[in-house]
UniProtKB/TrEMBL annotation:
ATP binds at residues 23-28. Pathway: Cofactor biosynthesis; coenzyme A biosynthesis; CoA from (R)-pantothenate: step 5/5. Catalyzes the phosphorylation of the 3'-hydroxyl group of dephosphocoenzyme A to form coenzyme A. Pfam families: CoaE. It catalyses: 3'-dephospho-CoA + ATP = ADP + CoA + H(+). It is found in: Cytoplasm. GO terms for molecular function: ATP binding; dephospho-CoA kinase activity. PANTHER family: BIFUNCTIONAL COENZYME A SYNTHASE-RELATED (PTHR10695:SF46), DEPHOSPHO-COA KINASE-RELATED (PTHR10695). Belongs to the CoaE family. The gene is coaE. GO terms for biological process: coenzyme A biosynthetic process. This is Dephospho-CoA kinase.
Length: 215
């Protein structure tokens, strides 16, 4: 039994933690894995769900950060909240102390649902898997890796922000050179999308399906 979780038929569900720095390419890898048939739980998506209007975490965030972080329709203005937490470690810890337990609870619920449905392999995509101490939730870790310069360039382009703002976001996470050491598999995404596609295909075929894979 892996990770203490069994499917209904007794077959264990194998959970692969997919992590990496901001804009390393996790979502791109997750989409490729989905195209091969993988089931993905996206912690960023869970983080959005748990702060929806009237959720307990929503009320705690408004109490902690005030109404200035709200949009006119009372939903959380994510850009405004991001501006606060990416330049203030103390504020970031306060936000995480609210969101992380709620994300963890939601992730466990999703995993239980998938287990009941007989899913054998689940990809748990979480940017802060290691920083949040959530590695015990997964059976193995795959790290999507890019070097600092590629990371800065992709964050700037995708989020339309300055180099300084990109560096600030990157500094809020464990450095990629350190994070990559946690991976049983490191997916080097410094190359082209074509190269990434090929690497993910090989990983899927050797580590998940096929003779040596999990299913
Ligand atoms: C700060 C928030 C409001 C910014 O929202 P926004 O929609 O602009 O970005 P999004 O949620 O898509 O996150 C983009 C990326 O930012 C990075 N990031 C998000 N939160 C954090 C954080 N607390 N510390 C470091 N990096 C973070 C991640 O790499 C993530 O993939 C939002 O990210 C948030 O609520 N963060 C706290 C919850 C959390 O820890 N999420 C990560 C899931 S494990
Ligand atoms: N090999 C590649 N070549 C060029 N661009 C890429 C490559 N891989 C990903 N990208 C682009 O880089 C950006 C970041 O990728 P992606 O959103 O998948 O990263 P992420 O790790 O999920 O980010 P975040 O942590 O912010 O959620 C996106 O605009 C994506 O299209």
């Amino acid at each position: 039994m892996l990770n203490g979780v069994c499917t209904q038929g007794g077959e264990p569900v194998h959970i692969i933690g997919l992590t990496g720095g901001i804009a390393s390419g996790k979502s791109t890898v997750a989409k490729l894995l989905e195209s091969h048939g993988a089931v993905v739980i996206d912690a960023d998506q869970l983080a959005r769900e748990v702060v929806a209007l009237e959720e307990p975490a929503y009320n705690d965030i408004v109490a902690a950060f005030g109404k200035s972080i709200l949009n006119e329709d009372r939903t959380i203005n994510r850009t405004a909240l991001g501006k606060i937490i990416f330049c203030d470690p103390e504020a970031r810890r306060r936000l995480e102390s609210i969101t992380h337990p709620a994300i963890g609870k939601r992730a466990e619920e999703k995993l239980a649902e998938l287990k009941m449905a007989g899913t054998r392999v689940v990809i748990y995509m979480a940017p802060l898997l290691i920083e949040a101490g959530a590695t015990s939730r997964v059976d193995e870790i795959w790290v999507v890796y890019v070097d600092r310069e590629v990371q800065v360039k992709r964050v700037m382009e995708r989020d339309n922000i300055t180099r300084e703002e990109a560096l600030q976001k990157i500094a809020a996470q464990m450095p990629m050179e350190e994070k990559r050491l946690y991976g049983s598999e490191v997916i080097d995404n410094r190359g082209t999308l074509d190269q990434l596609e090929k690497r993910v295909k090989v990983l899927w075929e050797t580590k998940v399906t096929g003779k040596t894979g999990k299913i």
